[in-house]
Amino acid sequence: MLPRLLILTLAAALARAAPQNAGELRDIQDAQELYKGAQVLRVEAVSEHQKEVLRKMQEEQKLDTWLNPAAGRTHVDIMVPAPALDVVKDQLRNVSATFRVMISDVETAIKDENPSLSEEEEEELAGRQGHRFTLQSYHRVADIHGYLDYLAQTYPDICSVQTIGSSVEGRPIKMIKISSSKSRSERATKPAFYIDGGIHAREWISPASVGYIIKELTENRDSNTFADKVDFYIVPVVNPDGYEHTHNGVRLWRKNRKDASKGRCAGTDLNRNFGYKWGGAGSSHDPCQEIYAGSAPFSEPETQAIRNFVSNLGTSVRAYVTFHSYGQYILYPWGYDKKVPPDYADLDRVGKKAAQNMRQVGGASYTVGNSASLLYAASGGADDWAKGGPRVKYTYTIELRDRGRFGFLLPAQYIQPTGREAFAAIKTISEEITTSG
Ligand code: 0X9
Ligand code: ZN
Question: Is 432 considered catalytic here?
Fold first, then answer.
């Protein structure tokens, strides 16, 4: 018989090493343990039985789902912690589900993703540029916000920066307005375009690509004259707390940081917290889930900030694009159910035009369609609110690169090609809202 002490020690070790849902992580140490040796598997779940087994396994083993089951594809991507790998693979084989290892060690993929410059190189670069933002690596919130402030100082004729609210932990949510309008009357005749990124903390390519867009509209404005006909309002990091958390060791954090001090199960999924059809399909009332909708519609200061700001812009807002990753999709409402708005043919046509132009400049293919039909139903999204609340016509969620080779851990060398694609989408939609009434 095993001595009692040994049993107790073993039990404690097992409890500590138990695979954890990313939504249940307590601290950075948990995250580091979770990522060490973890793999991302792409599972082909075709039959209903296979899907059911997979669903159960995801629940029992508390696997982090990177890419959900969706109508338009037969595979799902799951991150499996090292201690659960054997069990999960055995169970998959038992039901003859084929799977492929997409990322063989999450910890290594995290290390390889974002090469940092040496401190001297950074200092030198910052001195030369007047800010620390680049398209060569993923930056902290301070660098991104610092870039906005630099642009407002350098191009005061077309740029201004405003803090539209504060996050749960008190970080500013900054918006840059880029507009060549000189007067109120000029502004009144121009369409407004709202763009944001970083609702989901771990989708780093989103704020980076929004940074690319901002650069094109300011530093490279001479090549982008279409921009003179539109007033842009851009929030690169909607969820600064979550984003910083992903830079501080919990790389795969998705939600905001609501109730982080309580320990377990912090965070609300901001893309389930908007107040249109809030709390319906594809969202959860359990704070431990990654799709926790929050305690009420707009319970979070981050979503409140966007609601207040966009509502105040009024009817001039003709386009609303929110950038996410990954999968390469251009999605239009509705997301809460497999229904389309009355003008969906316009959204589809412009979406397809955008996809064509994105492919031309970047090479990647984007699939266009109704959000709930192409992916899955998910209520409380920013896009549905923009369409259903302030009634913005051209409302899209764009899921940027890639299609799963790196998933959320897309190496920094892809920032430029992905940013180019994101900008092509913005240009296409801008041209539409300046030519159609
Ligand atoms: O599930 C989401 O919030 C988005 N996908 S992600 O992988 N970036 O998390 C898709 C949102 C689509 N829009 C709505 N369902 N309203
Ligand atoms: Zn997202």
Answer: no
